[in-house]
Amino acid sequence: MTDKEKRALFNSWVQEYANMIYSVAFRLTNNHTDADDIAQNTFLKAWKYFDSFNNQSSVSTWLYKIAMNEAIDWKKKNTEKWEQGLDPQEVLVNVSSSSYVDFENGKQKFNDAINSLPPKQKAVFIMKFFDDKTYEEIEAITGTSIGALKASYFNAKKKIEEFFESN
Amino acid sequence: MMNFEDKYKDFKKPVEVPANYAEQLQAKLDQKLKPKISIWKVSIASMSMAASLLIAVLLWNNNKQNNLVALNSQQDTVVTTTETPIDSLFIEDLWFASLETTTLPDAKALPLDQELFEEEFTEEFVYEYLAEEDFLDL
Fold first, then answer.
1. Secondary structure class of B102 (helix, strand, coil)
2. Which of A21, A93, B30, B69 is deepest in the core (most CB within 10 A)?
3. What distance in Å separates residue A36's CA from the closest CA in chain B?
4. What is the ipTM of this complex?
5. Are A152 and A144 in contact (CB under 8 A)?
6. Do A43 and B25 touch (CB under 8 A)?
């Protein structure tokens, strides 16, 4: 494959998977700037290691894996941000309805509960709950066994329930 | 009893990705992946073929991968994608009066001629030439 062909393929990946990578990065970081940085770093790394991609997994799984690792690295440098709740921009301005306020409060609490999880468990929870990944897909991304992933997801749900009860 | 997924399904809202995000991201990536180009302009009265070759060898050795090198028709300018500075001591050895570098914002505007370098200035050719001319103690 020529450099030009590689670049064309890479660009097609950007077009196809940019939103997916941004979404997972946003869920992990809770803000646009960091999600965008992670998305950029994910694709820059994908380009750097383009030749090492061997088609053993799908492109989306490979990119997802890079994004997860980027997010975990980001977390190590930004523990305080990681533990924060929703981006203020996420909170909508229409608070006239009491049911809406209840919903927003619940959503905020739900996010707080997720943000209280350890990084890897949070990543597993997001993949399973929000992105509807199968355990097989998560295993391919994380390298963690299915049994351990099931336990991690189960424990994450338990912690979130407990968080709700105690708050 | 309602299971966890059903209980919290209302919070499972998709992330609101900014409009045209893929295009925005592509533009940022294009900018970051653009080759870093520098022009090294050697200000001497006449730059010999050997001097040109020596610079070519030096640049080659500094960055063997992804290094495009081209000499312009006047052979007083070396264009390279490497950001590694030309060794100043090496330059002194060649009695160059001065050396300037300019990083250009747009790589496309540069007269890169990788083909010339690959076809004529092969490593083997350069080393043989330099050895013959006593420029290099091989």
1. strand
2. A21
3. 8
4. 0.74
5. yes
6. yes
Whole-number Å distance between alpha carbons of B14 and A79: 24
Q: Which helix (H) or strand (E) holds B78?
A: strand B77-80
User: Encoding tokens for residue A143?
Assistant: 């390298």
Query: How confident is chain A (167 residues) per 10-residue block, as mean pLDDT?
Result: 83 95 88 93 93 82 90 76 45 39 74 88 91 90 91 93 83
- Please give the Cα distance from A18 to B19 (Å, whole number): 12
Top residue of B3, B4, B118 to mutate, by most chain A CBs within 10 Å, is B4
Answer yes or no: are the C-beta atoms of A64 and A13 closer than 8 Å: no
Residue B102 bridge partners (DSSP): B39
Residue A58's Cβ-side half-sphere holds a number of Cα atoms within 13 Å equal to 8
Question: Are the CB atoms for B85 and B63 separated by under 8 Å?
Answer: no
